[in-house]
Amino acid sequence: MVIFFLAIILLAVFYIKGKHHSSNNPKSGVEKLKNPSHKNYKK
Questions:
Q1: Is there a contact between 33 and 9 (Cβ–Cβ < 8 Å)?
Q2: Segment 1-43, tens digit of pLDDT
């Protein structure tokens, strides 16, 4: 369940980042997504 949710979020972020910036800072987006994800997981 957690893996599926994470996969969907990652896909969504990659899609949005790709549409917003072709190749600006994909790693930054992933890191930003991981931060809130971990907080939610702890909750």
A1: yes
A2: 899 999 999 999 988 887 765 555 555 555 565 665 556 555 5
- 4-30 as b/e: b if 16+ CB within 10 A: eeeeebeeebeeebeeeeeeeeeeebe
Question: Closest Cα to residue 14, out of 32, 30, 35?
Answer: 30
**Pure H helices in 1-43:** 2-20, 26-42
Phi, psi at residue 18, to the nearest 5°? Answer: -60, -40
Measuring CA to CA, which residue among 33, 37, 36 is closest to residue 12? 33
Taking the C-alpha atoms of residue 21 and residue 18, their distance in angstroms, rounded to an integer, is 5
